[in-house]
Amino acid sequence: MSKLLKDSNHMCFACSPKNPIGLKLVFEHEGDICRASFIAGPEHQGWNGVMHGGLLTTILDEVMAQWLWSRELSAMTAEMTTRFVNPVPIGAKLTIESRLVANKRRLFLMEADALLPDGSVAAKATAKFMPVKV
Ligand SMILES: CCCCCCCCCC(=O)SCCNC(=O)CCNC(=O)[C@H](O)C(C)(C)COP(=O)(O)OP(=O)(O)OC[C@H]1O[C@@H](n2cnc3c(N)ncnc32)[C@H](O)[C@@H]1OP(=O)(O)O
């Protein structure tokens, strides 16, 4: 296991339980899926009543990264695209799921979806991750 994962003082904005302004995401793994949930509060808004798209991208990024971390693959996001399909209302529970699409040479091609409570898609992301030494 990497030193970063063992370090109880890590301050990842998305996942550390110790970051006072962090999102404190937790992850579950089911087969080939990594999953997290998140409910945006008023402090996460962009447009009135709507979750900020940059934060949504952060969460999609993190859930893809955690798919790799959970398999002890230390990799950083090298490129990412988010398609915002539907606005996320403040207070709505989002389910975010990621999976590996392909591993080509050094690149891990990942994808993730953010789903609204009725199962409709709020946003879809694709990303390329590259291994790094930690
Ligand atoms: C417990 C804690 C858990 C924490 C989880 C946190 C998750 C957060 C996820 C993130 O947001 S990570 C932060 C955002 N990402 C970064 O800060 C990464 C910054 N970029 C880098 O550090 C380097 O550019 C990178 C490690 C991605 C790659 O550097 P390298 O020096 O390893 O690769 P290089 O640039 O030499 O390229 C190697 C090959 O990959 C190719 N390549 C690089 N980027 C590419 C790309 N985006 N798409 C396709 N190919 C790419 C490149 O063309 C080249 O091809 P060739 O070998 O054929 O010449």
From TrEMBL:
Gene3D superfamilies: Hotdog Thioesterase. GO terms for molecular function: hydrolase activity. Its main location: membrane. It holds the Pfam family 4HBT. InterPro entries: HotDog_dom_sf, THEM4/THEM5_acyl-CoA_thioest, Thioestr_dom. It catalyses: decanoyl-CoA + H2O = decanoate + CoA + H(+); octanoyl-CoA + H2O = octanoate + CoA + H(+); hexadecanoyl-CoA + H2O = hexadecanoate + CoA + H(+); tetradecanoyl-CoA + H2O = tetradecanoate + CoA + H(+). It is found in: Cell projection, Ruffle membrane; Cytoplasm; Membrane. It is a peripheral membrane protein. Its EC number is 3.1.2.2. SUPFAM superfamilies: Thioesterase/thiol ester dehydrase-isomerase. One of its GO terms (cellular component) is cytoplasm. GO terms for biological process: fatty acid metabolic process. Belongs to the THEM4/THEM5 thioesterase family. This is Acyl-coenzyme A thioesterase THEM4. It comes from Pelotomaculum schinkii. The lineage of its organism: Bacteria, Bacillati, Bacillota, Clostridia, Eubacteriales.
